[in-house]
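Morning - 2-acetamido-2-deoxy-beta-D-glucopyranose inputs below, output right after.
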Amino acid sequence: MLLYSVWVTTLSVVLLLPLSSVDGGELRLWHQVLVSLAKVSSSTNIKNITLSTNSTMVWTCCNTCIKLGWCNLWYPDFSARTCTFYNTFVMPTYRETYNDDAILCYTKRPKDYATNANITAGLQMTIPSKKKENLVDGIYNFNILNCFHTDSAEREKWFVLDLGAVLTFSHILLVAQPNSSAKRTMYGFKLRVGTSPLESYTGFSAYDEFGEFPGRAYESQEILIQSPKAVSARFISGEVSPDAKQLQVCHMEVY
Ligand SMILES: *[C@@H]1O[C@H](CO)[C@@H](O)[C@H](O)[C@H]1NC(C)=O
Ligand SMILES: *[C@@H]1O[C@H](CO)[C@@H](O)[C@H](O)[C@H]1NC(C)=O
Ligand SMILES: *[C@@H]1O[C@H](CO)[C@@H](O)[C@H](O)[C@H]1NC(C)=O
Ligand SMILES: *[C@@H]1O[C@H](CO)[C@@H](O)[C@H](O)[C@H]1NC(C)=O
């Protein structure tokens, strides 16, 4: 309860400042991001509220998003005095490629290093859209077709991110697939980190352990693996237990 009141107090102070400068400024706890309206409209959870005055719009919308629990992104339409809330994950450094209908939203997701990283991975399962790049594209709408799904062979159930440079981080978040088969594709999961590339799949024993998730995951579980100490690394490998049916992961964050 004490923690909660501290949080609310901090939030109100932080948010009072930018009320008059919403157009240019970034709210401290939120990041502005341009994203296609059509893309966020495919969210599996959407809600609108209409407010009676402009003055409390930003404050009310931030707080409403937090209170909803499932909300990751919101869009203020100042002329209609509505705020629309979406569960879609959009990372602050997401790069929109369809700008025709882009809207300026606020995302709750943190600035991270997985977005726009390079990725290599084991052989993909047959569905073409379920590619490894889905883990580094900075957007996820809880549709299983936008997850990364590997083949079932033992040597294929892995991925490696290349952050492009040695960077320091302590949190890695993974989101399990959005149905109950998550228990078969996300367990005995190990994350390791390193500073040099590996020529081929070797089980990643040359890398240092970052953390693990014994599992088994439930649907859409947000698995946050935190290192007791910040680590500095360029490469991050992830692999599931050899017994797992396949590896399926839908979204990833590194910060
Ligand atoms: C929410 O409000 C916006 C106006 O900003 C409107 O375009 C949109 O269709 C509404 N969405 C829903 C789900 O009602
Ligand atoms: C609210 O803001 C919008 C856009 O800035 C403006 O068009 C509208 O007149 C404002 N409404 C009120 C009641 O101030
Ligand atoms: C990803 O690979 C491309 C092509 O090799 C390179 O230009 C880019 O800098 C790389 N980005 C990162 C984050 O490693
Ligand atoms: C979950 O999705 C997978 C595809 O990844 C599918 O094969 C499986 O049948 C689905 N399971 C359930 C319980 O819907």
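Note: The pocket of 2-acetamido-2-deoxy-beta-D-glucopyranose (ligand 2) is lined by residues 53-54, 78-79 (CB under 6 Å).

O.
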